[in-house]
Every structure is written in C-alpha cells, then in structure tokens.
Specification:
- The complex is a heterodimer of chains A (575) and B (443).
- Helices cover 6% and strands 37% of the residues of chain A.
- With 575 residues, chain A is mainly beta.
- In chain A, strands 10, 11, 12, 13, 14, 15, 18 and 19 form an 8-stranded antiparallel β-sheet that branches. Chain A has a 4-stranded antiparallel β-sheet with strand order 5-36-35-34.
- In chain A, a hairpin with an 8-residue loop joins strand 20 (271-278) and strand 21.
- Chain B is mainly α and 443 residues long.
- Helices cover 74% and strands 0% of the residues of chain B.
- The radius of gyration of chain B is 27 Å and the shape is globular.
- Classes of the chains: A mainly beta (575), B mainly alpha (443).
- At the A-B interface, loops of A face helix 5, helix 10, helix 12 and helix 13 of B.
C-alpha cells in the first residue's frame, strides 16, 4: 500500500496547520535559550449547558443524604435524532424519590427530551413528544426496534421499564406492556442488537439488586454499609442480585424473554450495571459484555445460532489482572490501538483503577497500568466513558465522567464532586491525562451517565453528562482538529439502524474500526452514526462495511470532512 | 501490604499475646495498673492482651486511658489504628498510624501500617516515602520490600518492582503475595515462563490464592497451553463463586443480627436461614440461627445449628460454648464440659467460655478447677456479674460459714446484676443477710 503524503504528517504537523483554536505560548526559555514556539491548544471542551437551554434540568435522585443505594446510581443520557431532521437531540434520564413513588399526590419527575434547534440551543419537548418516563429512570437505549425509520426509546427503571415507540410525527407512545418489556424491580444498563440475525433488534437488560427498602439496613448498620468507616448506604454487597433479562424481538411489536433458551444463565445473580454489544472475536456475530458491580464481568459469546456461552474469565476480561473482581460500572468499546480488534474500558469505584482490556485476537489483557490509566484513575470514581477522538487525529482518546457514589465521601477522605477526565491517546498504547485547564473539564460535580456525538454536525464530538442532583454538562468541543468523516448506515436486509455493523476506515496509513452500537458508556446511548478522525489525511482511501448479516461492501476514495450515508446494497456513497 | 502481628524487625509494636498466655497477660497488666495507675505502658499492655483475646472494646478503652496518660505513646496509637482497621474505619486508622509515626519515627511497624493506609487512599508517593524510611532502617524488611514492589508495579516501574519482589522473597521465602505480585510484574514484561514459575510458587505456598490461580491461567493462555489454562480459569471461577456466596451469606447474616438486635426474632430467623442456604459452610450464620432458635425455645433445632456451626468451623469457640450450653440444659454435663473446654482452648481470652466451664465444673463438684476458670473469667472481664456470683458460691461450697471472699464476690455479682439475688441458695441468702464477722485484732 502506498501511503499518502498526508500520512507522513505528524500529529504536531497537522495540529499546527489547523487554524482554529490555536494559541502559541512563545517564547519559552529553555536552558537559557529562546525556545521554539510551543503549541498550547485552547480548551478541548466548553460547558455550554446553560446557554444551550439545558441548565433548567436538574437530575433528581432521591434525597441529598442518600440513605439508599437506589438514590446514588444516577442516570443515563441518549443522543439520537427523534424527529429525523438530521440533528441529534438529547434525552436526559431522570430519577425520582421515594416520596414520589409512594405518594401519588406528589408531582412526578420525568426524563427530559430536548430538541436540537440547530442553532446551538435546545428546547424541552418532553410534554409534546409524549416521551414521559415517570418511573425512577436508570438507563436508556435508543434504536429503531420496529424498522420503521424512526428511532424508538427504551428506558430502564426501578419498577417497570418503558418502551416508547416513535410515532414518526414527533411523538411517542408508551407500549411497554403490549411489548412485554416491563421487567421488574431494578433494571440497569441495556443494549440493543440483532443477536440471532433475523433482522430485528433484540434487547439485553442487566439487572442490579433485589431492592426492598424495608429490608435494607440503615447506613452504618452492617458490614457493607460503611465507606472507610463512615456510615453510607448499604450495598450492593450484602444484598441479593437479580438475573439479567434477554428479550427476543418477535417482530410484531412484541418481545419474549428467552434468556434460558439462549443460554444466558445469570445464576450467580451478579449485580449487573453497564451493558454493551460488540463482536469481540471478529466472527461476525454480536456478543454482549456486561459490567457486574463487585463481581466478575460477563462476556456472552454469541455461538452464531442464537445462543450464548459465558467466556469472560477465559477471555481475560472478567476480573483485574491480579484476579480481583472490581466494581464494574460503565463500558467503553473502541479499537484504541487500531489493530482491528475492539478493546474494552470499564470504569470502577474509587481506590481502584479503571480497567483497560486490550483485545488481541479475541483474548483480552488488562493493560491499564501499561497504558498509563492505572495510577491516575485510582482515587476517583468513574461512571460514563467513551473512546472518542476529540482532536480527530485518528486515534481514539478517552472521556471519563466521574463523581463519588457517596455524598459522605468528603468525610472519608475522598470527594463527592469530582472533575471529569480527558485522556489523550499517545498512539503507542499509552494515554496521558490532559490537564484540566487544557481539557476544559474544570467544574466539579458528581457525574454519572455520559453520551457522545456530533451535536452540530461539525465533525467534532460533544459530550453530554448527566450529573446527579445537579444540572448536566453539555461539553462543546473546541481546539484544533484534524480531518474527519462521519458514516451513517441504513440497513435494508438487516436491522434498519445497522446496529452491529462493523466499519473499517482506512486513511492516512491507518485503519480504524468501529461498530454501530446502541447502549454503552454508563446507562447511555451515543450517536448511532460512526465518527472517524483522520488527522492530516486529505481523502479516505477505503471504507469497508460489514453489515449485521455479514454482507460486506467496500467504498474507495471518499472525501473527508463530511458525512457519508450508506444504504445496505447501495455501492454508491452519497455525500 | 498486609501487616503482620510481630514485625520482622522484632519491633514489639504489633505484638500479640500467644493464646495460652492471654489470661496471665491480662492479669499481669491489671496488676501493673493497680500498682502504678499513672503508667501508660500498663494500659497498653492490657490493651494488647485484651485485643489478643478478641476483646476489642476492652482494648480500646485501655488504649484511650494509655493515651490520656501519654499522648505520645506510639504503641497505643498503633494498636488503636489496628482496631480501627478491624472495624473498617480506615480514615481514622490513617490518622492513628500517622500519630504513631510522629510519636516514634523509628517505629518500623507504624511506618508500614501508615504506608498501607496511604496506599489504599491512593497516595502512592506518600506510601513509598514511608516504606523507603523503613528500608533505610531495615534494608532486608520483607514486608517493606514487598510493599515497595507493589507501589512500583502500580506506577509502571516494572523492572524495579521485579527487583523488590525478588528481594522480598529472598528475605522471606514463604511469601505468597510477593510471589503472585512478581508473577504479575513478569507478565507485564512478557516473561511468561518466569511469571508461570512465580504463580506456581505462590500456589505452593497458598493453594487457594485466587490471584495466583488466575495469573497462572493467564500465563498458560499466553504460552499456548489452552487446556491447562482453562483448568486454572475454571478453578478461579469456582473459587470466586464461593467468595461471592460467602459475601451473600455474610450480608444476610448481618441483616439477621440487625433484626435480632431489634427484637425481630422471626425476621432474624429468616435472614439466618437465607444466609446458611447461600453458603452452607458459613459457621457464623449457623451459630446465630441456633441462637435465635434457642431464644424461641426450639432447643433441638438450636442444638443442630450449633453442631452445624462447629462442623463448618471446628475452631469456632462461641459455637462450642453454645453447644455446651445446649448439652448442659439437656443434662449432658460431660458433653457440655468437653465443648466448654474446647471453647477456652481455642480462644483463651473468651471470658464467657471460662465462666461456662467454671459453672459446669462446679456442678460436677470439681471446685478447684471451677474456681480457676471463674477467676480467669474475671481477669478477662472484671465486671462479669455471673462470674463473681458463681465464684462466690464455689468459694462457699462445703464451708460451714460464708467465707469473707465468697461473700464479697456474691455481693459484687448482685451489685452488678441485682437479678442474681433471686438465684441465691436459701442457706447462703441467710448467711448473706447476717452481718460479716468482725475482724480479729492484730494483737
């Protein structure tokens, strides 16, 4: 393969050539000599939640004291285009309070849908859209489950879950009961995927603990109700877990819970939180990774016949490198080292590191410390997470939302409010924490769910973070940028959103890999369109799409800095 | 980073009293305190002895007295820190260990414990500083070397970590944690054969070490030995499932204890039953279930549960004591004595066990042995009303008149627990109501 000239550009070269957002710190006196101009990129993100109209939303999650685990877990975010106007809208899942649940006369809380006005502002359209989830919301996965061309929304709750069918006219109808997706008790992360290849999206729902407030000890009353000696809400250890649920899409707006038939036997009643679908072994069948809190993770390998086997332990992603189950919560899936295999990053509790599982031909190794993430993530508590290429250099960086689970953390030597983190991919298997001044992630709140996507179709990735008991962050990207392409897929023989499709983009001498996914990070859904930064490349050499039905299509010589929409079976790229 | 009871340097800071010496140690400490009430060291000795006998509240009270007399008694801060760790109050422990270091910068044990706390809070640099101070004083300290290696490993200084672990193992050949950490470090260097050897060595030292079993599996996988790797992973998985089952059992047991304390016997019984179902070998829950059933007058079922508790953990002193009680009520005095004796042999600092044994021995007429056990109980727990009372009765048995010491003990028992008065034998009640004989003049 002949490398394009642009591939020889270094990261610094193309950053210097980019005009936007640069400022130079000159001259630097080094060893008494005048130094060369040093690039000092301005903030990579700016919080514009207030100006954009999200500032009025304030997440509700129980009382501020938080005597119960349910009040501490926070909520997710979804970025999806609910009205097909080509702009991503924002759904912020909301929690509730025991008072609301127990007293019908108390005003309800609800998740909030914000329509993207296309001018940097958003309008709360919850009421008119009918997407009103009054349960104690947790996670969200948005996808077109009925293949009608409009994105539907599934929200997990404490209590009955909720499926909102998109009516195609800017409104939604709650069809949970007819669909058979109520679930029950405490559902957590969820993810869509056509796991049996029938062209319809199935659904995996992780469940956390069997929560009965009357039976939960008071903070400090038992062994698992202390954090460094300070009384805190009890659990999950010491409480009973719930089996995860796996629903088959029957194709008529109905789902059937088939975990037993599918071989998904959550017999250890693990405390399931995050869920993400990925093809970890590149066999063309979509597998499922489940982050289990304080217990070994699950990796349900799709055997290709609609059934699964659990292989996390032997695949190397069940526990830490030293054999310890960690407090697994949020999940990022991405090929950070551009070797064609999807890697997994899992966020964890404080006083423990976030684990990076590098995938080598379907076998994982915990390389957190080698990658420079071990020590720096040790003290804080991570939730939402994404492999995002914030500077479009062709190498996926990491955004991490953080905040302690216990408001009492400050009494125990940690912090309830913590800064989110940005890590730069150094392109050698290592990441470096970007200084908060440079990242722009300066504020401290107790963050939970985080979702990532191109909210203004500018070719840059935004981050939306749901903060517990506080307004969200809406992080607008800034700073210099490389070139990029965005890929929007529409399935015709497979599911319409092409969830599970794998795309390989070759440009500038490197090949990047990603898959369409609905449901990952912590309780959240990212932009279903795939985004690839390509650094200094002037053109895209090749795009290879493996659709969920394993049909492969290839496209060559595509323009950068634009979205390419591909429809299954259509070999012509439409820019 | 695990602490040891006695530091390898011979530092007595963390000293514990051997089980068979606990009663004597407590007695000696109390004597010292009686003779020199202002001597902080006496209270510290008492605290160490009581903590060795699992009497944490007693130990803590003694430590507080010691520190009130001498706020710079580093051993007392150290003991207080260790008790805080046992209670899960890590932040407080950190402060106590820091005080211990400040009180005596030469204390190896204090620095190692302080280092461990700093590490757990994420202050790797602070932890490393403490360990380096230890190594300046004692370059061959295995725990310090192992701790240093672990910090180096976390910070990506792999070669240095390997060196530290190897030195630690050289200083202390049976050190499974250092061996498994060495395995992890070698894995990160890609030295799969070396890692395999390290994990196998760790497993030889401690066959149930999950990290070593998992590490061995990972190593074998990288070496292409798929089938043996799968065996190790399956083993690790099974062991982790047992750990999870135990965690669940402990959680339910905690719930049961909470409900029991709240007087909700039915709720407690249910929780304990769930606990034993989650992990059949969880002795604590069997013992607690037995306790609730006993209180519910379900003696036969309670006896079964105490028996199951002992079967699950033959070294569970309290379950032996409870089974002894059950056998005694059933009229099986020899059987009861056997279990009481086992209880105090297993846990010589168990005051109630000594009392139970003394009571049973008294009933068989073995008054000399009974007296000794009751006195041991009172050394360990001076306010144990029933022990005073029974000791008084033992001292009075066979005597034509009530001896002064017997009278004093009985009166102390009743003063501490007035309900005991109703248990007085009529003859002694009579003697007790008459005034004590006047003391004879010296000349």
């Amino acid at each position: 393969m002949i490398k394009s000239k642009s591939s020889l550009l270094t990261r610094r070269d193309w950053l210097r050539r980019s005009l936007s957002g640069l400022c130079f710190a000159v001259p630097v006196l080094a060893n008494g000599k005048l130094g060369q101009p040093v690039l000092a990129p301005g903030p990579w993100f700016y919080d514009v939640a207030k100006e954009a109209g999200l500032g009025a939303f304030r997440d509700t999650c129980g009382t501020l004291v938080k005597d119960y685990l349910l009040e501490e877990m926070g909520n997710g975010v979804a970025l999806f285009d609910y009205n097909n106007d080509g702009l991503l809208d924002i759904l912020l899942v909301n929690g509730s309070t025991f008072e609301v649940l127990e007293n019908p006369s108390v005003p309800r809380t609800s998740s909030r849908l914000f329509r993207n006005n296309g001018d940097g502002t958003f309008t709360d359209v919850t009421r008119q859209s009918g997407l009103i989830n009054e349960g104690w919301g947790m996670a969200v996965a948005a996808a077109d489950f009925d293949n009608d061309g409009f994105t539907d929304v599934f929200i997990t709750n404490f209590g009955s879950n909720a499926l909102f069918r998109n009516n195609g006219n800017g409104t939604f109808t709650n069809i949970t009961k007819e669909a058979g997706l109520e679930g029950g008790n405490w559902s957590a992360g969820c993810s869509w995927g056509d796991f049996d290849g029938d062209g319809r999206l199935d659904l995996y729902v992780a469940r956390y603990v069997d929560f009965d407030r009357a039976k939960i000890p008071a903070p400090g009353a038992a062994k698992y109700c202390l954090y460094r000696g300070v009384p805190v809400a009890c659990g999950p250890q010491g409480l009973v877990g719930l089996p995860d649920l796996y629903y088959h899409n029957e194709g008529n707006g109905k789902f059937r819970e088939v975990s037993r038939d599918a071989g998904i036997r959550d017999t250890s009643l693990a405390y399931g939180l995050g869920v993400a679908a990925l093809d970890f072994d590149n066999d063309g069948f979509l597998d499922i990774f489940v982050a289990n809190d304080s217990m070994p993770n699950y990796l349900w390998r799709n055997k290709g016949n609609g059934t699964f086997e659990e292989v996390a332990m032997e695949s190397g992603c069940a526990v830490s490198a030293d054999g310890r189950p960690q407090s697994n919560m949020g999940i990022a899936i991405g090929d950070y080292n551009n070797d064609g295999w999807l890697d997994i990053l899992v966020t964890h509790f404080s006083e423990d590191y976030d684990a990076l599982y590098r995938n080598t031909k379907g076998q994982f190794d915990d390389v957190s410390f080698e990658a420079g993430l071990g020590t720096v993530t040790f003290s804080d508590l991570g939730w939402g997470v994404g492999f995002i290429d914030y500077d479009n250099d062709g190498w996926r960086d990491i955004f991490l939302s953080q905040g302690h689970i216990y408001p009492q953390a400050d009494k125990a030597g940690n912090k309830w409010n913590q800064p989110d983190m940005l890590f730069r991919n150094e392109r050698n298997g290592r990441f470096t924490l970007v200084d908060h001044k440079e990242s722009g992630l300066l504020d401290v709140r107790s963050s939970r769910g985080a979702a990532f996507g191109d909210l203004d179709n500018s070719g840059r990735i935004w981050a939306v973070v749901n903060n517990i008991d506080q307004p969200p962050y809406l992080y607008k990207p800034g700073g210099p940028s490389g070139a990029w392409i965005r890929i929007k897929l529409t399935g015709t023989k497979c599911n319409r959103d092409a969830i599970g499709a794998r795309v390989r983009v070759t440009a500038g001498g490197i090949t990047q890999t990603d898959e369409v996914r609905s449901g990952d990070s912590y309780f959240s859904t990212n932009d279903l369109r795939l985004h690839f930064g390509v650094g200094g490349a002037a053109t895209i050499d090749r795009v290879e799409i493996r659709w969920p039905d394993r049909q492969v299509e290839k496209y060559e010589r595509l323009a950068v800095n634009r979205e390419h929409a591909f429809r299954q079976g259509d070999q012509n790229a439409k820019a | 980073m695990a602490s040891e009871n006695v530091s390898p340097t011979g530092d007595i800071d963390l000293a514990t009293v051997p089980p068979d010496k606990i009663v004597a140690a407590v007695a000696a400490a109390r004597k010292v305190i009686q003779q020199q009430p202002d001597l902080a060291q006496g209270y510290l000795q008492l605290a160490i002895a009581l903590r060795s006998g699992n009497d944490q509240p007693g130990a803590l009270a003694a430590i507080d007295k010691a520190l009130a007399l001498d706020p710079h008694l580093h051993g007392a801060w150290l003991q207080k820190g260790l008790i805080s760790i046992d209670g899960g109050t890590l932040k407080a422990a950190t402060v106590y260990f820091r005080n211990a270091v400040e009180s005596d910068p030469q204390s190896v044990a204090a620095r190692l414990e302080y280092s461990s706390m700093l590490f757990r809070a994420g202050d790797f640099k602070g932890a490393q500083e403490q360990i380096e101070s230890v190594l300046k004083m004692d370059p061959e300290n295995a725990n310090a070397l192992g701790g240093l290696g672990f910090i180096q490993l976390q910070q990506g200084e792999i070669d240095a970590a390997v060196g530290s672990f190897r030195k630690a193992i050289g200083a202390k050949p049976r050190f499974p944690e250092a061996k498994q950490n060495l395995g992890n470090a070698l894995m990160r260097l890609g030295d799969w054969a070396g890692a395999r050897q390290a994990f196998e060595d760790a497993i030889k030292d401690e066959p149930d070490a999950i990290p070593a079993v998992y590490g061995l599996g990972t190593t074998l996988r990288h070496l292409g030995e798929t089938a043996p790797a799968a065996t190790q992973f399956a083993k690790a998985k099974d062991m982790l499932q047992m750990v999870q089952a135990m965690a669940r059992a402990q959680g339910e047991d905690n719930n049961g204890v909470r409900m029991w304390n709240d007087g909700n016997l039915a709720g407690a019984e249910e929780a304990f039953r769930i606990s034993v179902a989650a992990h059949m070998a969880y002795a604590e829950a069997h013992n607690n279930l037995g306790g609730v059933l006993w209180q519910e007058k379900k003696v036969k079922e309670a006896t079964d549960e105490f028996t199951l508790a002992i079967r699950a953990d033959p070294k569970f002193a309290k379950a032996h004591n409870n089974l002894g009680n059950a056998l005694m009520v059933a009229g099986n005095l020899p059987g009861a004595i056997e279990h009481y004796q086992t209880a105090v042999t297993l846990e010589p600092g168990f005051a109630m066990g000594h009392f139970s044994l003394g009571l049973a021995l008294a009933q068989t007429g073995k008054t000399i042995q009974a007296e000794r056990e009751l006195r041991d109980a009172l050394i360990l727990s001076p306010d144990l009303a029933v022990a005073h009372f029974e000791l008084g009765l033992v001292l009075a048995s066979g005597k034509p008149t009530l001896p002064a010491e017997a009278r004093s003990e009985i009166e102390t028992g009743i003063r501490l627990n007035p309900e005991l008065k109703s248990a007085l034998p009529p003859a002694i009640a009579r003697d007790l109501s008459s005034p004590p004989p006047a003391a004879l003049p010296h000349h």
